[in-house]
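[Help] Beginner question about ligand-bound structures

Sorry if this is basic. My supervisor gave me a protein sequence and a SMILES string for zinc ion and asked me to "get the holo structure". I don't really know what that means in practice or what format the answer should be in. Inputs are pasted below exactly as I got them.
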Amino acid sequence: MRHARGKDLSFRGDRYEEVPPDDWTTLSQLQQWYQLAARCGGCGRVSRVDRYALARAHGAALPLCAIGARLTCQNCRNKTGNMLLLGTMPRD
Ligand SMILES: [Zn+2]
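Answer (accepted):
No worries, everyone starts somewhere. Holo just means with the ligand present. The predicted complex, written as structure tokens, is below.
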């Protein structure tokens, strides 16, 4: 997996980076300690995405690069330009 090119950002204390548009890692291949979030292309809101709910809805073979286009912002209902973010669980 390549996630080194993403731009780091933090959200509620966790670190996230943008998923490159050519990342074909599937939900089932994604290691357990990764969690997903998304940033709205309209209003900029960042919210967590439940990867297991995504896998149930779209199948575990869904690649990361295809997820952003399937997301709808909970705030403004925007469906375009949404960016998937990949984060790791906070360590203590
Ligand atoms: Zn929005």
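A couple of things worth pointing out: The mean pLDDT is 89. The chain has one domain: 8-82. Feel free to follow up in the thread.
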